[in-house]
Amino acid sequence: MTAVEKGKVMDENDIRRALIRIAHEILESNKGTEGLYLIGIRNRGDSLAHRLAALIEEIEGVKIPVGILDITLYRDDFTTLGTQPVVHETKIPFDVNGKTVVLVDDVLFTGRTIRAALDEIIDFGRPKSMQLAVLVDRGHRELPIRADYVGKNVPTSNSETVDVMLKEVDGKDAVILKELRE
């Protein structure tokens, strides 16, 4: 099966504008930065969390702590991932108890990644609340999970995928819609 590019959904400027909007929405919804922490899901959610923290610092002049979450061991399909799944370090350099945690990811699809992330964060403590920010919501939820902040809704079919590329990981910023073909 091959993935054939159908088109660019977001370019660098679209991603930048979406993140600026999300940063403002997070500040407005939480009435500022008091007790606010960001945690990004590896591999691209952590880059987006750092970008959002930088934008919030530009807007409010307050540095927001950022954590990085690797959910590999919390996935419900962990036993089917293959012979040696690669596990990276989770870095949450702050106490989550009583804090407002904004979980950040690149694409929201079935909701299973977010469920795994919620489970892992709860192993670190009991946040006051958890919110979800995603760059792209492509639908097809299998669990009752909804994002609080969405950069762009991209309705997809089951034969389509959404690839988020970020400078920190891929050398460029873009969101590409692809179709899987036999």
Automatic annotation (TrEMBL):
Keyword vocabulary terms for this entry: Glycosyltransferase, Transcription, Transcription regulation, Transferase
Record GO terms (molecular function): uracil phosphoribosyltransferase activity
Location of the motif PRPP-binding: 101-113
Superkingdom to which the source organism belongs: Bacteria
Domain Phosphoribosyltransferase, first and last residues per copy: 15-165
UniProt catalytic activity: UMP + diphosphate = 5-phospho-alpha-D-ribose 1-diphosphate + uracil
Enzyme Commission identifier(s): 2.4.2.9
GO biological process: regulation of DNA-templated transcription
NCBIfam families for this protein: PRK05205.1-1, PRK05205.1-3, PRK05205.1-4, PRK05205.1-5
Known function: Regulates the transcription of the pyrimidine nucleotide (pyr) operon in response to exogenous pyrimidines. Also displays a weak uracil phosphoribosyltransferase activity which is not physiologically significant.
Family stated for the protein in its record: Belongs to the purine/pyrimidine phosphoribosyltransferase family. PyrR subfamily.
Name of the protein in its database record: Bifunctional protein PyrR
Species of provenance: candidate division TA06 bacterium
Name of the coding gene: pyrR
